[in-house]
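re: that chain from earlier
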Amino acid sequence: MATTTTATAHPASATRRCRCRLAAKARPHHDRLLLVETDADELLALMELAVTWGELDYSNEAIVSPNRWLEFARAHDWVDPDRAERILALATDVALRAARGRRPVSAGR
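^ sequence. v structure.
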């Protein structure tokens, strides 16, 4: 029998009781965002969304938009709140740069 760790149990229990307004508008994406801290595949999916934000049309998708990801981070309980906020802040930065068409300046410049 597999044991349940706090890291894997935490997001699932949070999704059942979460009543934030972002959950009401985009429940499946909301629940996936809750997993970015503990699930590498969801973290990669978030980064892929962020990178393509300025290139693809997501207007017909029920998703939490990047301009709300930091609000999302602060509205939920996390195993490591600082790490979750860093993840969502980085993804926000990537997505908003993509939307503005900016490219990051290389470290060597």
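Residues 81-100 form the longest helix (20 residues).
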